[in-house]
Design goal:
CATH superfamily of one domain: Outer membrane lipoprotein wza domain like
Order of helices and strands: HEEEEHEEEEHEEHEE
Shape: elongated
Distance between the termini: 79 Å
Number of helices: 4
Strand order of the largest sheet: 7-6-12-9-10
Radius of gyration: 30 Å
């Protein structure tokens, strides 16, 4: 019996060794899959997401709708998007507008009227001039026309850049939703994830650095 054990003990030890290695590797794989890190700027208010597309309509936006192409078309509409995200149309009632581009809204209004109420109708949707604001320690504080996608650093560049007294490490961004962010522009210069997109109505404020350089 002892001789049998001595002959086969090496195989048992090797088997137990492989089992131990497999257990350790399984434990490592499980621990790594459960954690995830993000690289987003901190928010004072907990942060709410902005619209996925910069041109999306939002609550409070002024929508101007003109009808033409037929005798006696519906009256033109100038209305701000209500808190429930809708606008009110003659014959149609409330129509969702929030989250759509002006082009999408124009198409949906056209489809709501034609051919149910009119055989043909021309619908034109316009929005008020959209702007963002840059203030504080920049060379040209002002209101700027929003003409398409633009990032925080690009918006500051539109204001001709920082002054020599700017606290670049704590640039303040206030969304029209009330969300507030504090962004380190020095880090954002090297990390595009921190160079957040600007949307219409945003207000950027660059504070003056303290005497200690902060």
């Amino acid at each position: 019996m002892l001789s049998f054990f001595l002959r086969h003990s090496g195989a048992w030890i090797r088997t137990l060794g492989w089992v131990a290695v497999a257990v350790v590797l399984a434990g490592c794989g499980g621990s790594s899959s459960g954690s995830k890190t993000t690289n987003t700027p901190p928010s004072k208010t907990g942060g709410s997401s902005i619209a996925s597309r910069p041109d999306d309509l939002r609550k409070g936006d002024l929508v101007q709708i003109a009808f033409s192409g037929i005798p006696n078309p519906p009256g033109d509409i100038d209305e701000r998007i209500k808190e429930d995200g809708t606008i009110n149309l003659e014959l149609i009632g409330n129509l969702p507008a929030e989250g759509k581009t002006p082009g999408q809204l124009q198409k949906e209004i056209q489809e709501a009227y034609v051919p149910k109420y009119f055989l043909r109708l021309t619908v034109t949707v316009r929005t008020e001039r959209r702007v963002f604001y840059v203030d504080g320690e920049v060379r040209r504080p002002d209101r700027f026309v929003y003409e398409g996608e633009i990032s925080l650093l690009q918006a500051i560049a539109a204001a001709q850049g920082f002054t020599d007294f700017a606290a670049r490490g704590r640039v303040e961004l206030v969304r029209n939703t009330g969300e507030q962010l504090v962004i380190d522009a020095r880090k954002a210069k090297n990390d595009t994830k921190l160079d957040v997109p600007i949307v219409p109505g945003d207000r950027i404020f660059v504070p003056r650095r303290s005497p200690w350089g902060r």
